[in-house]
Amino acid sequence: MLIKKLFLQNFRNYEREEFVFSEGLNVLFGKNGQGKTNCAEAVFYLCTGASLRIRHDKQLIRLGESSARIQAEAENRYGKVSISAEIFENKRELKINGSAIRKNADLMGHVNSVFFSPGELRLIQDGPDERRRFMNISISQTSPAYYTALLRYNKILDQRNALLKDKDGAMVLETLPVWDEQLCKYAAVIIQKRVEFLEKLAPYAQELHAYLTDGKEKLTLAATRKYGEGEEEIAQALLRRLKNNYENDLYRGFTSVGPHRDDIDFFIGEMDAKAYASQGQTRTAALSVKLAEVEIFKQLSGEYPVLILDDVMSELDLPRRKKLVKKIEGLQTILTCTHAERVLYGADANKIRIEGGKIKQEKGV
Description:
The protein is α/β, with parallel strands linked by helices. The protein has eleven helices and 15 strands.
């Protein structure tokens, strides 16, 4: 999968710019605050329909403007594809090859991407929400069934939680089984897909972590909860857990078990990385997981995704920088940094200097 061209209009600090990307390493460089990350964000948005940085799309619109536009000319193994997003104050319009689409599910999979920045340390350092979000974004790009199940599960979960707050306890207990049957149906899809994802991800992450640490440390990933084998068994196991927690859920006013409460365990050797890893160890572990995610996309879709590395080099020591540059050879990578010459180490790259939301051409670049 490749992004050939990217057009931005009134997006973030860009008035109107067109980027031409190569099939290999593309380095967006310049001083901080010039718009490098904004460009990377636009690529990820067109791949997933969401930003990792904001909650409301209207924040993507350039100050003083009423709308923003992003468009990419791309290629996947089926041929050329055009993806565009027009963003307004209270709505947006997504199009694939000029045809409007209404759901994110219809956007997923045309061009996949993996995004890594220093902020991705949250994957290990923060609470379970971050790790579930990581799985949701990653799995949804290659599994429309997962994305659909996730939407329906969350909708039913909201309705169940609203029911649990009702003061008529007898009515709640009578009604809960109806919601639970539906909830478990979609929960089973989510849980099974996550299990399959982690079973594929863990060995790649362990291998890449060993590569980055010269074999000095061992990274292990695993799901924190087990429900059973296969969707039917998972659904029945969760149904039993829900029933066993009726009293607790009624007291608390929310659903206490299910995939919305699940987590991933990270261990470096015998150490719980979430609790005890240093900043450097956390950074290397998170990067290993993201590079493993790249391999998962290749395995599932037959193509490598677009890899986005936002200000990552400044957070790595010299040996790991060199290892990373070597590892991404042959991948279309969009890398942002302040000084291109400090991160290339002889690698060929399409270098693009950004200044004040504009592409600046330089002699010899």
